[in-house]
Amino acid sequence: MTELETQVLLEAFAKALKAERTSQNLTQEELAQRARLSARYISYLETNRYQPKLETIGQICSGLGLSLSDFTKKIERAYPAEGKSQKAE
């Protein structure tokens, strides 16, 4: 994965996180409490300032009441086709 592809993927993560949080009518503080993270860290993730660890993604999924698989699907939907690498045939 190129640096650009990684950046696009992180932007998709941030977009999916914020969209899911707001669709559940949760504040950053409420999600942070549920996920055992700080509200500032949630803010940094939603604005693409930090790259989350897998453990953190798991905590967020738990806080949102989603499986890792379901949240990954939401990230994939936010990931634009032009950001995905094209395999040579």
Structure description:
This protein is mainly α and 89 residues long. 66% of the residues lie in helices and 0% in strands. The protein has helices spanning 3-23, 28-35, 39-46, 54-64, 68-78. Helix 1 packs across helix 5 and helix 2 crosses helix 4 (54-64). The protein is globular, with a radius of gyration of 13 Å. The mean pLDDT is 92.
Overall mean pLDDT? 92
Total helices: the number is 5
**Number of extended strands:** 0
Distance separating the two termini: 17 Å
Taken from the alpha-carbon principal axes, the silhouette is: globular
Structural category: mainly alpha
Give the H and E element order.
Answer: HHHHH
Oligomer: single chain
As a percent range, the share of strand residues is under 5%
Low confidence ranges: none
Please estimate the helix content: 55-70%
Major beta-sheet overview: none
Radius of gyration: 13 Å
Could you write a compact summary of the structure shown?
With 89 residues, the chain is mainly alpha-helical.
Task: Based on the model shown, name its key terms.
single chain; 89 residues; mainly alpha; 5 helices; 66% helix; 0% strand; globular
